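Consortium newsletter contribution from the modelling node. Members have asked for a concrete example of what our holo predictions look like. Here is one, prepared for the guanosine-5'-monophosphate complex that several groups have been discussing at recent meetings.
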Amino acid sequence: MQNFEVLEELLSSPKKIIITTHHKPDADALGSSLALSQYFGKKGHEVQVITPTDYPSFLNWMNGNDGVIIFDAKKEDYFQNLLDSSDLIFCLDFNSLNRINELGILVRNSPTKKVLIDHHLEPENFADFTYSDTTAAATAVLIYHFIVKNGDSDLIDKCIGECLYAGIMTDTGSFRHSSTNREVHLIIADLMMHNVDTSRIHQLIYDNNSEIKLRFLGYALSKKLVILKELHTAYIAISADELKTFESQTGDTEGLVNFALSVDGIVMAAVLIERSDAVKISFRSKGNFNVNQFARQNFEGGGHQNASGGKSDLNLEQTVQKFIALLPNYKEQLLQNLKTEITSC
Ligand code: 5GP
Ligand code: MN
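And here is the predicted structure:
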């Protein structure tokens, strides 16, 4: 981190700290925020976690969840005041202030010093201190390093460890993405030393489906999955009416895109969802096909090489047509990433 010593000095006496994270926080976003919040609490700081929106109920088990405040645009003055009267704002697991919606405008306007800790590609230069490592498997990995670098590894306990574990487990796709390196496993081994119950956390996050969510998954896969074999692309488009029929809750569409990507011969997958403000798109890819670039170039988005997101202000049907029309331009790259090498030892 640039100017780490200056930040260390700032944190050497009790401070008022705000921690925030991205829109619709996932396990890495919330887990990193709550782990850092508990750590700062142990160091004698006063901490408040603010999320820009709500998040899935399968994350509610995390220690510190009860103290989280969800931003409400109707109370703008209250939140601006909260930010401005703090000493530091920590921004976790996002690379640009537009990822936290209206709260981003308040953060940008605030004179309070900002710290960015993130692993997404191409971070915006808005913070006074930036700790960005785009090779890190999760922001939770960076929070772990931050605590260790401060000489406080003995402050990591089961509750902090569980939050970090949830972030690393989910962002690595349960330790299967290429970001899962030796370091990840060493960190997990250390968290297990702190009695983190890994199978319990896996169950809390993945074995917590409502019946209707599973029925929705069945419907999406049997009726809505479109496979463009020649273009090595699969997509699923879901309308607002369909979300309503299946009483979709925050987080219910998470993971859908991975099923589309899992189809044999598919290199890129997309899930397009009609939300109230825009069509939200999730992209995933295999190999070197860069969906960060694809989302950036075409859908005002970004993320990582193999997992990104974006949005479109066209209607759902037009967005699907735009997506399909773009694919021939990428056919060569999609094809290149299909090749699988045979291992010989
Ligand atoms: P997901 O598809 O799970 O919502 O997001 C995949 C990855 O892309 C995550 O790392 C997420 O933070 C990032 N991402 C999702 N939507 C957007 C977006 O609209 N803009 C940017 N810059 N990143 C996004
Ligand atoms: Mn993350």
